[in-house]
Amino acid sequence: MKFHQAPVTFVQQVHLFVTNIERSLAFYKDVLGFQILKREEKKVILSADEQTPLFIIEEPTQVAPRQGRTTGLYHVAFLLPTRADLAHILVHLLHTYPLQGASDHLVSEALYLADPDGNGIEIYTDRHANAWKWTNKQVHMTTQRLDAENVLQEATSEWKGMPKGTIIGHIHLQVSDLHEAEEFYTRGLGLEVVSRYGDAAIFVSSGGYHHHIGLNTWHSAGAPAPLPNSVGLHWFSLMLPNEETRTQVVTRLHEIGANITREGDVIITTDPAGNTIHLVI
């Protein structure tokens, strides 16, 4: 997956707050098939290969329920290695858990659902990059009905949990002001706009991917950030290829007035909508 390794900048991990750690763990472990990499009383680090930290769920002290109209997570998207893997989990979910949707985006095929707290989840596979169509550096994406019957023909075995090659393919965020978000993610973080969806959503990426981050104001134009202990996105990490790149990013973030702090080897910034990002190398 060349779009999720150096020299590309990509989403590495996502950390979510939940209202009940046991209920959420049952979902992510038993329904989606992630494995426990590390367990604390109210925090679990999950993996798809028993080695790589991929996804964190945590029940914070005095957790606040998911709020109606705020910025934050729209969905986190797990990218599966093959179309057969998508077929296997589709069979599994059809028998175990309600789907919210299933779409063909031309560049990818995707299933949509939500965890017990309403956090959005996409599970998808990419079509080969040679099949993506570009015009003036903009990739053609759309939302069509998934040909589920055709996908199911790829199934060769029973679902056995998240395959080892599963990664976070992208994250989609709700923001309050699309212009401010575009400036932060392009001028600040150095990503490129590769698709515009009407006047309320853009998709940005590095290295020619169809998108590493989606940004929209469909339900959040002018909305505030959620409470610090609210259910939803706590932070996500962006993997940068090297320290030189990170230094350049930090310089640009300072130039646009972004908030920046440091905790050990991690540099932390916050986008204009209040979404927290860990910059790692």
Give a brief rundown of this model.
With 281 residues, this protein is an alpha+beta fold. 19% of the residues lie in helices and 35% in strands. It has a single domain (2-280), classed as 2,3-Dihydroxybiphenyl 1,2-Dioxygenase, domain 1, CATH 3.10.180.
Characteristic terms for this protein:
single chain; 281 residues; alpha+beta; 2,3-Dihydroxybiphenyl 1,2-Dioxygenase, domain 1; 9-stranded mixed sheet; 8-stranded mixed sheet; 19 strands; 19% helix; VOC family protein; Glyoxalase_1_CS; VOC_core; metal-binding
Helix and strand topology:
Elements: E1 10-17, H1 21-31, E2 35-39, E3 43-47, E4 55-58, E5 72-79, H2 83-96, E6 101-104, E7 108-114, E8 120-126, E9 134-135, E10 138-139, E11 144-145, H3 148-152, E12 167-174, H4 178-188, E13 192-196, E14 201-205, E15 213-216, E16 232-239, H5 243-255, E17 259-263, E18 266-270, E19 276-280
Parallel strand pairs: 1-4, 5-8, 12-15, 16-19
Antiparallel strand pairs: 1-16, 2-3, 3-4, 5-12, 6-7, 6-11, 7-8, 9-10, 13-14, 14-15, 17-18, 18-19
The secondary-structure class comes to alpha+beta
Give the rounded overall mean pLDDT: 96
Helical residue percent band: 10-25%
Which strands sit side by side, in order, in the main sheet? 11-6-7-8-5-12-15-14-13
Strand content: 35-45%
Largest sheet: 9 strands, mixed
Low-confidence stretches: none
The dominant shape is globular
Write down the CATH class: Alpha Beta
Task: Describe, in plain words, how this protein is organized in 3D.
By secondary structure, this protein is α+β, with helices and mostly antiparallel strands. The protein has a single domain (about 1-280), classed as 2,3-Dihydroxybiphenyl 1,2-Dioxygenase, domain 1. Helix content is about 20%, strand content about 35%. Strand 17 and strand 18 (about 265-270) form a beta hairpin. The longest helix has 14 residues, at about 85-95. The radius of gyration is 18 Å and the shape is globular. About 40% of the residues are buried.
